[in-house]
Amino acid sequence: RDDLVVLGIETSCDDTAAAVVRGNGEVLSQVVSSQAELLSRYGGVAPKMAEEAHSLVIDQVVQQAVENANLSENDLSAVAVTIGPGLSLCLRVGVQKARRVAGTFNLPIIGVHHMEAHALVARLMDKDLQFPFLALLISGGHNLLILARDLGHYVQLGTTIDDAIGEAYDKTARWLGLDMGRGGGPALEELAREGDENSVKFKIPMRQHKDCNFSYAGLKTQVRLAIESRNIFTDKSSLSSESSHDRRVRADIAASFQRVAVLHLEDRCERAIEWALKIDPAIKCLVVSGGVASNQYVRSRLHHIVKKTGLRLVCPPPSLCTDNGVMVAWTGIENFLVGRYDPPPPANEPEDFM
Ligand code: KG4
Ligand code: ZN
């Protein structure tokens, strides 16, 4: 395993990321180029613009990752790349680059599922994390509760019936006039610290549904109505001259939104733990990963829930929760080691093969 060295490439959304990881889990390099300026200016991701931004930096990001690992492409054992789910235009940039590198240096290639990578990266940082485990995956596009029974063997206990929690964070942040440069989540988490989380009464989603599914569309609507009814400035240009009262109102909405958004996660996790232990009593851990799992409030609330059940909470460090190349390289390694990979593509493959 120590001889295995895998390059991971991730371009499914707005981050262009690459990393080199050794088979024993040692991270040799990690490079992320984010589209903060575009996100900040447009308040979200537009696929065509994101594709262009990926294309502009992909060669440099991959080169940096290889150089920072003190290696050359010749030292690599394989290339892993996210093939979905994600924005197809963006995924294509990563896949083409991966096939170019793999073709030129005669390396096997491993197609990686983005959400599997979010879950499995927990096994890189916690070598004691064995299958089976339960995983809550919370990102901009997905909300999943997964029972990971073995590598490639996943049982879905719950998913979102409309929006994911990250989408709710992003919209709430945008409506509150916050900076969207790192996605809306981090700015909203910051503003929420100043607010009273019990001040605005939002309804907790799906309490009457005794399952493990999620819904955030209704909460989004509640937040939008709450903002509209309060008559406060929420456009960025006016915020510098906002009164302390208005700031307080915005912080109260942020904190109240966050409380209810996370209570919904807590509800679902409690039930999922119950279900999962019935299916497989050997489960010892709940993994929480995906961009929203970098949120400190989310982490501490879930820690509390999990402690009561006797399970262990495994939460990767924030830099491995948000999109990154390490999780892709690592998932490539896990799959490579059980023989799941494709042979090297032909050298000089035409760019428009797909
Ligand atoms: O996993 P990820 O990086 O990309 C996707 O696969 O979607 O997740 C991005 C999402 C965005 O919605 C972003 O606002 C959210 O994760 N996020 C956060 C925080 N950091 C990132 N949400 C809440 N609090 C945070 N600190
Ligand atoms: Zn993600």
From TrEMBL:
Predominant subcellular localization, coarse grouping: mitochondrion
Cell compartments where the protein resides: Mitochondrion
This protein's GO CC annotations: mitochondrial inner membrane
A molecular function GO annotation: tRNA N(6)-L-threonylcarbamoyladenine synthase activity
Known function: Required for the formation of a threonylcarbamoyl group on adenosine at position 37 (t(6)A37) in mitochondrial tRNAs that read codons beginning with adenine. Probably involved in the transfer of the threonylcarbamoyl moiety of threonylcarbamoyl-AMP (TC-AMP) to the N6 group of A37. Involved in mitochondrial genome maintenance.
Homology family: Belongs to the KAE1 / TsaD family.
Name of the protein described by the UniProt record: Glycoprotease 1
Organism of origin: Asparagus officinalis
UniProt lineage: Eukaryota, Viridiplantae, Streptophyta, Embryophyta, Tracheophyta
